[in-house]
Amino acid sequence: MKIPVEFTKQIQYQRVKHIVDSYCLEGCDPLPFEHHLKKLLEIYPSYVVELALVEVLVAQWMRVPMQRGCRFLAEVEQHLHEWMHYSNRDRPLVPYRITAEQFQTITGLDPTPVFNAIVAFSALHHDN
User: Fold this and answer.
1) Can you tell me the distance from the alpha carbon of 41 to that of 64, in angstroms, rounded to the nearest whole number?
2) Nearest residue to 108 (alpha-carbon basis) of 18, 20, 24, 21
3) What is the structure's pLDDT at 84?
4) Is 44 in contact with 85 (CB distance < 8 Å)?
5) How many domains does the chain have?
6) CB 51 within 8 Å of CB 109
7) pLDDT confidence of residue 87
8) Which pTM was predicted?
9) Which domain of life is it from (predicted)?
């Protein structure tokens, strides 16, 4: 049985929102944040957005106070831009720093969709 595309997109969006909501990343301006987040999800694959959110979150833990809101998303967007334009073919397309186990511990989400998609996307990119 094939899952409808719209249902898949809704699941992907709910995963991203789970990360955002779990760490109160919206900040004081939820509407601009939501708009920016949706824009990122239109531009980049959701699994890469999930990973970037977590990577930036981990980096932000060292800052007091931790950035939230659109400033947080600006840093996420910078990660995404760097990852998508990463040109060294001897390295993974997405040079992530956290493991699948760390991702699951931080988010409470199954890391399989994210890390399988990254491996597949990197392999596809290396074959071309």
Assistant:
1) 28
2) 18
3) 74
4) no
5) 1
6) no
7) 45
8) 0.86
9) Bacteria
